[in-house]
Amino acid sequence: MTDVDTALHTDAARPSRREQILRAAAQLFAERGSRAVGVDDVGAAVGVTGPAIYRHFASKDAMLAEMLLRISERLLAGGVERVAAAGDDPLAQLRTLIAFQVDFALDNPALITVHDRDLGSLPDGDAAQVRRLQRRYVEVWVGVLGRLHPSADDATSRARAHAVFGLINSTPHSAGRLPRAQMAGLLAAMAEAAATS
Amino acid sequence: MTDVDTALHTDAARPSRREQILRAAAQLFAERGSRAVGVDDVGAAVGVTGPAIYRHFASKDAMLAEMLLRISERLLAGGVERVAAAGDDPLAQLRTLIAFQVDFALDNPALITVHDRDLGSLPDGDAAQVRRLQRRYVEVWVGVLGRLHPSADDATSRARAHAVFGLINSTPHSAGRLPRAQMAGLLAAMAEAAATS
DNA sequence: CCGGGACGTGAACCGTCGTTAACATCCCGC
DNA sequence: GCGGGATGTTAACGACGGTTCACGTCCCGG
Known about the structure:
The structure is a homodimer.
Chain A: H1 2-13, H2 18-32, H3 39-45, H4 60-85, H5 90-107, H6 109-117, H7 124-148, H8 154-168, H9 180-196
Helix pairs in contact in A: 2-3, 2-6, 4-5, 4-7, 5-7, 5-9, 7-8, 8-9
The structure holds a DNA duplex (30 and 30 nucleotides).
């Protein structure tokens, strides 16, 4: 299909418009919150007027939806892949999961912020889909944490997982103040200590 | 001053209106985000029409401002007080800080959520004041963490503090699934492990 | 008992913002 | 080189939401 061709061309090859828009929007949404950012602001950020956006997205909500869906999919896919590649040792799996999440959080503090702040301003359908993906990602962690703490029930493992997410996803609050490598090491060490405690 | 008298009377004695409104607003803001909540919604939540709110608050922003200021002040005051009461041992200080923050996070998940999601939708002046209070609270933690890790610089301690906040403040994401005492124990243990790692 | 302040109400005002419409422009393939 | 699709622009529409207004009611102190 020419559809797919075009899509591949525009989406991947050149980082063109649509992608620029998504990136700029992510930045703005993270800074001010999606509801506080106007279509005109997003347009201006890529050197275009507001309504021009509707050539690339059906609506503002659709923009936010695609953004959140991508993040959730990336996290889930990455998590599954890392765990699978880590062999059978739960501790090794935990370490690779932590490293993965830390990298993501350091590379995309803006996405982290938007991800859990603006989920609520999403149309019900999309919100549900994002939540499904999030839940599956959490379950990956729950599995690993469960094997690491055989006596703990799933509810405890889930709470532990959320706590570790909170720890690692603190990057938007403490960003840039520390060299990346140092920050990565610190977060990884803290996360592992917390997860195995 | 009659001012103070009245304030004390209305604010403390009876949990009347103004207070009801603040509580209801906190709940709604936490669920949907302050910008997605209309004045009418807040009014309806306390059995009153929208405009009635302007008998108690100068504006919607003023409501949010008072909410965030109170939280920040409560945290700072509580933190300072606990540390002072804990003697000289940095580990004892850390433990009491953690217990304090865990209690707060478990008692007020809604406030936690609003606190760092809606700070951005605050008039510049109020936002700055809230940030000042936050900073001072963080500094309390930084002091303790610094004494606990003598070789670490302040930037590291600050990052550590934010990470621990993220860990403990994960309560809105994993609320209610675990009995409170169990959740408190889990979070405290994880936080201590992370902070001392 | 009566005058005023606290508290509410419904209606109207007005700015903001997402979205659409009508109209250009540019460029690529036939 | 010509027609059409992709991409933008400006202007306008319509809804929503914060805020104000004019008007009631209730109650309490002199």
